[in-house]
Amino acid sequence: MIDFYNWPPYIRIACLLAPFMIALPGVFMILFLAYRNLDTILTIFPNSVYVKRQKAMWGSRDPLSRFILTSSLAAVALWPDRHIRRGELDESEVRKLPPSIKRRMVIAWRLCAAGTAWLLLFGGLLKLSGVE
Length: 132
Known about the structure:
Layout: H1 9-36, H2 38-44, H3 49-58, H4 63-78, H5 80-85, H6 91-96, H7 99-129
């Protein structure tokens, strides 16, 4: 059993803050992409059903919708083959995505996923240890 209260305070604080310190740079990268590169990303995919559907669903006017739209379009950079097989993306359009934008989308998504995984894992460990 994990006895969280007997850990040194600096380790407890580090373990509690680490998921946020990992995920927040990813969130800020997505925000940066939403305001700097979203219009470029949308013009690269004029014929892709997935991109049209996401834009129709989320819009691209206010900050929250731009953030969610950019986050959902990161799936294009992460799993393009899956979307191409389903006929939602045009393969030639996927190849037009600039490597710098694709790299930032992948890094941002991975940082957010790693922070979330850490938070869930550590929260589960604390729950199992009986910390309330």
